[in-house]
Amino acid sequence: MSLFKLAYEALMCNEINEKIRLTNELLNYHISNNNVNSKFTVKKILVPGRPIKPNLIDFKGSPKRDPSELGMIKNIHAICHIEFNAINLALDAIYRFQEMPIQFYIDWIKVATEETIHFSLLRKYLQTLGYDYGDFDSHNGLWQMTVDTDYDVLSRMALVPRVLEARGLDVTPSIKNKFKHSKFNEMVGILDIIFRDEIGHVKIGNYWYQNLCSERDIDPIKTFDSLIKKHIGSNLRGPFNTEARLLSNFSQTELDYLEHPELVNTN
User: Fold this and answer.
1) Band of the pLDDT at 66, cuts 50, 70, 90?
2) pLDDT band at 59 (very low <50, low <70, confident <90, very high)
3) Is residue 201 part of a domain?
4) pLDDT band for position 39 (cuts 50, 70, 90)
5) Partners of 56 in the beta sheet?
6) How many domains does the chain contain in total?
7) Taking Cα atoms as reference points, which of 18, 12, 23, 9 lies closest to residue 116?
8) Domain limits at 85?
9) The dihedral formed by the CA atoms of 76, 146, 24 and 165, expressed in degrees to the nearest 10
10) Is position 64 within any domain?
11) Which pLDDT value is given to residue 84?
12) What's the CA gap between 97 and 4, in Å, rounded?
């Protein structure tokens, strides 16, 4: 079976445990020039493999979480949903962009399998609380960005790891602090694992974004700015976790742009 077909089968699998098994099969896949050259039909995927639940609602209509005990559990569920989506995001990158160097696939297999660990940790914790993944409504914003950037690997690298995953680096410390001072303090250790790994995931996205900009001889900051305007429509909002972003190989120039995007010269 080709690498891309295996990634596609994992991506489109609806059953959670089987999706995780198929994703982890990619770890044992021997990637060579021969099997990377064995292409598999690429198509637009509006709905990836997912269980019937959770029920998906519009992001704008999703309720704000409250600080009650149930509100905290819903917050855990929301993070669990993010990590489930992240599995599909990584699998789609492997399946969709079939003209990349071998290292690209090695990197995104690492991301996909680590996301299965994150999801499983969160799901198991939910189950100890008497709940399960799918018990609460969730939004589909993460997958929508995947659909919106399926036309170009550079756009995908710019906006999924460097915006969506990097946002997780910004907000995790404050989320962790809320759990630390609650009865759900077991979440602190889980979030520490996710935070450590997500630095690596954003670092991978940064590497491939910079690599592609260099290959195409385009300015990375001006290009990023234009993609933000095209796909998001407004500047990214802080505060930004400068330390974590530097660890994930954002340059100081890029961090300056995030704080002052109006100073970018787009001529």
Assistant:
1) low
2) low
3) yes
4) confident
5) 138
6) 1
7) 23
8) 3-46+70-263
9) -50
10) no
11) 97
12) 9
Report residue 152 as tokens: 């170009």
Structure tokens at 110: 């690492």
Reference 165, options 203, 113, 221, 109; nearest CA is: 203
Whether 52 maps to a domain, the answer reads no
The two structure tokens encoding residue 210: 């910079």
Strand partners, 139: 57
CATH of residue 85's domain is 1.20.1260
Single-letter amino acid, residue 26: L
CA distance 70 to 86: 24
**Three-state secondary structure of the chain:** CCHHHHHHHHHHCCCHHHHHHHHHHHHHCCCCHHHHCCCCCCCCCCCCCCCCCCCEECHHHCCCCCCCHHHHHHHHHHHHHHHHHHHHHHHHHHHHCCCCCHHHHHHHHHHHHHHHHHHHHHHHHHHHCCCCCCCCCEECHHHHHHHHCCCCHHHHHHHHHHHHHHHHHHHHHHHHHHHHCCCCCHHHHHHHHHHHHHHHHHHHHHHHHHHHHHHHCCCHHHHHHHHHHHHCCCCCCCCCCHHHHHHCCCCHHHHHHHHCHHHCCCC
- Residue 194 is encoded by which pair of tokens? 């996710």
Residue 87 in tokens: 């599995």
In-domain check, residue 102: yes
| Residue 61: per-residue pLDDT | 45
Nearby residues of 231 by Cβ (< 8 Å), 6 or more positions away: 145, 148, 149, 155, 159
